[in-house]
Design brief:
The chain has one domain. It is built from 9 helices and no strands. InterPro entries: DUF1761. Keywords: Membrane, Transmembrane, Transmembrane helix.
């Protein structure tokens, strides 16, 4: 059975905060985002930042957990046997021996992360933003943030294959 790499999931869960600190900095896209979103310094000061960070980590953990299924193809093979290797036939074990680390690289995970933003995050964000009468500038600032963030998260999740440490798979 494929094991979840909770350390990789946890590390990837901090990526949205780290990239957010950089991306939404006034010297990068922060000033443009504030203008496009109608955010002001006063609104930002009137919020519970600690609570926002806590919920960001919790929600980012959920994203990281789901990224495994988007980036690690071996979960599909495991799913075909119900995730229980005690019911698997020898062909499953032969397949996993041959392809157990196939496409387990940072680059492959990053590619799937980017594709998920392009075909899932962008349409959802754009639809909501259009109904909220937000500008395309607002949409692209935020989607670009998620594109960078989820691309890196996918790379971490897919490439960091070992549950017990920092082992990376090189592409076959």
């Amino acid at each position: 059975m494929l094991q979840f790499n909770f350390l990789a999931i946890l590390v990837a869960a901090f990526v949205p905060l780290i990239i957010g600190f950089i991306w939404y900095n006034p010297k990068v896209a922060g000033t443009a985002w504030m203008k496009a979103s109608g955010m002001t310094e006063d609104k930002m000061k009137g919020s519970n930042v600690a609570m926002i960070f806590v919920f960001t980590i919790i929600l980012s953990f959920l994203i990281s957990f789901f990224m495994q299924f988007l980036t690690i193809h071996q979960f599909g093979a495991s799913g075909m046997i119900g995730g229980d290797e005690s019911h698997a036939t020898p062909s499953y074990f032969a397949f996993m021996k041959e392809y157990g680390t196939a496409y387990r690289s940072f680059g492959h995970g990053a590619l799937h992360g980017f594709i998920s933003v392009l075909f899932f995050v962008f349409p959802i964000f754009a639809i909501n933003s259009m109904f909220e009468r937000r500008s395309w500038k607002y949409i692209f600032i935020n989607v670009a943030y998620w594109a960078i963030t989820i691309t890196i998260m996918g790379g971490i999740i897919c490439g960091w294959y070992a549950v017990d440490g920092f082992h990376w798979v090189t592409q076959k």
